[in-house]
Write a structure and sequence with these properties.
Blueprint lengths: L1 E17 L2 E15 L2 E8 L8 H9 L2 H6 L5 H12 L3 H19 L3 H5 L11 E3 L4 H10 L4 E5 L5 H9 L5 E5 L6 H13 L2 E5 L7 H10 L4 E3 L7 H6 L5 E5 H4 L2 H13 L3 E5 L5 H8 L7 E3 L11 E2 L2 E3 L2 E3 L9 E2 L2
Parallel strand pairs: 4-5, 5-6, 6-7, 7-8, 8-9, 9-10, 10-11
Antiparallel strand pairs: 1-2, 2-3, 12-15, 13-14
Helix pairs in contact: 1-4, 3-4, 6-7
Length: 337
């Protein structure tokens, strides 16, 4: 077993803005686990909000190389349990490693990952396309540039309602909105009434992550479903979000990969919550891994690779929101850069 680390700079087609940051380039680390003729690939992007850097991920993974090689025959969930204590303070690195190991394991079995899990892909949800915060004119331009049946609109400005009203003039597509912790309770309740009339499906993480009293109020009073993101980082957060949110958005980089993410989704479904997976502007390496969780999801935001001007891999393809799997086994990834 070889551990190969590949850092990349992923260039975005447009400046990507949310309520707390903006970027034109996304740093990313691709992990390759090579075992004879087979290679498995995983990815995690750098993120200053969560303290995830390429240098720290690379250093922490390199330090575990001998342990990785010593446990290369385990099934993925057992492998994850061995690695978790070593990487519990660097979940982004654990994610990249876990994705690569799941990919490699399924390839060696000669199956696609969803087949290894025994999942039925016939009722997969489609993915939204994200419009980042910008001037209203530029947001309209981005929408027109990418006709899509389902949009996720980043909000958290002083013009949020005006943005949605203007975008609605140009499309009949379903909207979802993500305030990235940028609203208050009263603002959310008032906005929800207007947004529902404008064809918005749900609101993602309007309040600060630790405002559990506020989350409870919205859970009880909002006319639109509220989906947790920043409040649902790791496995124990699913139970905390129960009866405080109507659903959870699981990010693989935050929870430590496919193995833990799958458990979180299964737990949320048992609790009667809506399930979603979101992306962190990964290339097709990370996005293709998400695709294998689709049968467990009500909603998905896996447009990361579409937002790039220089994707580094082939994998799944997306047409009008519909995800088509690669012919390759595992997660179906092939590096092209």
């Amino acid at each position: 077993m070889q551990l190969i680390l590949r850092p990349y700079e992923l260039k975005l087609e447009h400046t990507f803005r949310i309520s707390r940051e903006a970027r034109d380039v996304q740093e990313s680390l691709v992990v390759e686990l090579k075992d004879g003729e087979f290679s498995g690939y995983g990815e995690a992007t750098a993120n200053p909000y969560y303290g995830a850097t390429i240098e720290k991920m690379s250093a922490d993974l390199t330090a575990l190389e001998s342990l990785i090689k010593a446990n290369a025959t385990l099934e993925p969930s057992s492998f994850w349990q061995i690695m978790y204590p070593k990487l519990k303070d660097n979940m982004f690195a654990l994610c990249a490693l876990d994705l690569a190991y799941n990919d490699l394991y399924a390839r060696k079995k000669g199956v696609k990952l969803y087949e290894y899990w025994g999942l039925d892909i016939n009722k997969n949800p489609i993915t939204d396309y994200t419009i980042g915060i910008d001037t209203i004119e530029k947001m309209v331009s981005k929408l027109k540039e990418k006709p899509w049946p389902l949009y996720k609109i980043k909000l958290g400005t002083k013009e949020d309602i005006a943005i949605i009203k203007e975008l609605r003039k140009h499309t009949d597509a379903v909207f979802r909105v993500d305030a990235n912790c940028g609203w208050s309770v009263d603002e959310t309740l008032k906005n929800a009434v207007v947004l529902k009339e404008l064809g918005v499906e749900f609101i993602e993480q309007p309040l600060k992550a630790d405002d559990w009293g506020g989350h409870k109020t919205l859970f009880l009073k909002s006319v639109l479903p509220i989906i947790a993101d920043e409040s649902c980082m790791v496995e124990e957060d699913v139970m905390k979000c129960h009866n405080h949110f109507h659903g959870v958005n699981v990010k693989l980089t935050k929870c430590g990969g496919l193995t833990s993410g799958k458990r979180m989704l299964e737990k949320a479904r048992k609790l009667g919550m809506k399930t979603m997976v979101g992306c962190m502007t990964e290339s097709s390496v990370g996005i293709s891994a998400i695709a294998h969780l689709l049968p467990l999801l009500d909603f998905v935001d896996m447009d990361g690779a579409i937002l790039l001007s220089n994707d580094i891999a082939d994998g799944i393809t997306i047409t009008d929101g519909v995800i088509i799997y690669s012919e390759l086994n595992g997660t179906g990834v092939k590096l092209i850069a």
